[in-house]
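Exam revision sheet. Question 4 asks you to relate a sequence to its structure. Input first:
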Amino acid sequence: MADQAVTQDLGDMEIEATPKGGLNGKKLVLFIILPILLLIGGAAGAYFAGLLDPLLGAKEEHVEEQVAPVDTRAVFFDLPQMLVNLNTGGKKNNYLKISISLELTREEDRAELTNLLPRVVDNFQVYLRELRVEDLRGSAGVQRLREELLMRVNTAVHPIEVRDVLFKEMLVQ
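Answer key, structure tokens:
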């Protein structure tokens, strides 16, 4: 009787007892079905992620794109030195003396930028006069200034593209 399952009839309910060491429903799910599902899911995930390609002998397709050669020569355009009165809110006067060089994408843009120079200087002057000394503190402040000036110069000289704004000299006094 120890090797066989015992079944008792209790009215309408039938109870099945498993002998010791046997697998009931919970143990079957926990120790057999769940690990099998996890292995199948992991294998499917590895297959779709491409981790099994070397094991399965899948050949990689190499797609070569034709990329135009990038002109790596730097073209710089120096702006005239600017001296602006910073916004201090009526307290003592603070000044910003700044020398800027613009990095252009093409040499041909230099002549056209010379014609648009008054617009660029005006945009910079208006923006710089609204700055406070606190706005220029630290490398984060200088980076924000660089990004803002780059956005303003690209708007002013469109369709000419300016790659970067470089600070040659910056003095706050």
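Marking note for examiners. The CA atoms of residues 62 and 72 lie 27 Å apart.
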